[in-house]
Amino acid sequence: MSKLLELHPKNPEIRLIRMAVDAIRAGGVIVYPTDSCYALGCALGDKDAMARIARIRQTDKHHHFTLVCRDLSEIAHYARVDNWQYRLLKAVTPGPYTFILEATREVPRRLQNPKRRTIGIRVPDHPVPLSLLAELGEPLMTSTLLLPGDEYPLTDAAEIHERLEHQVDLVLDGGNCGLEPTTVVDLAGREPAVIRVGKGDPARLGATA
């Protein structure tokens, strides 16, 4: 049975953050708030935890996870970033955008797009995941918390805990963080291509590309 931890949304308590990090390192799956909507997270490359997330979401083997990173320097460790891509990333991160980039060898092959060898990466603008990432010291494997049969992601942590208490290890309550997912931008080509319009303003991408 999972635990529900209520965190201050702007100044999350380090004791609770460390509890979540311990759970992640032990192979757990957590639910945490972001600057777009709640997400499921686990340790980078943890096959068993990723399989649990896939069962919760009822996705197939083609489902793409996202690497949630602390900053641009961490992104550069897991993705190849040219100068024009770096300028765009610097202009809009942290923020509610997911970027498709060519993966480096640091990314396990099973996490990459099998044909393009790309990976989705983002830097959230929210104190809870940023605190988690700082304490964890590496990216989180993440998938949006959209449950089978639901039209929209869940926004109430108590409801999330009630529905998933036997499927996840921890639910971090950071308050309502909205329904809109990230804007997804493919940067693996010669210029930015918006794949999905979400919370991030696409106009900011055109102005900086």
Q: What is the CATH homologous superfamily assignment?
A: DHBP synthase
Mean pLDDT: 92
Inertia-based shape:
globular
Main beta sheet: 10 strands, mixed
CATH topology, what is it called? DHBP synthase
First-to-last CA distance: 47 Å
Description:
The chain has helices at 14-25, 47-57, 72-78, 83-92, 127-136, 157-164, 202-208, and strands spanning 3-6, 30-32, 39-43, 66-68, 97-102, 118-122, 140-144, 170-173, 183-186, 193-196. With 209 residues, the chain is an alpha/beta fold. The chain has one domain (3-208): DHBP synthase (Alpha-Beta Complex). It has a ten-stranded mixed sheet with strand order 1-8-2-3-7-4-6-5-9-10, with helices on both faces. A hairpin with a 6-residue loop joins strand 9 and strand 10 (193-196). Helix 1 (14-25) packs across helix 5. The radius of gyration is 16 Å and the shape is globular.
List the helices and strands and how they pair.
Elements: E1 3-6, H1 14-25, E2 30-32, E3 39-43, H2 47-57, E4 66-68, H3 72-78, H4 83-92, E5 97-102, E6 118-122, H5 127-136, E7 140-144, H6 157-164, E8 170-173, E9 183-186, E10 193-196, H7 202-208
Parallel strand pairs: 1-8, 2-8, 4-6, 5-9
Antiparallel strand pairs: 2-3, 3-7, 4-7, 5-6, 9-10
Helix pairs in contact: 1-5
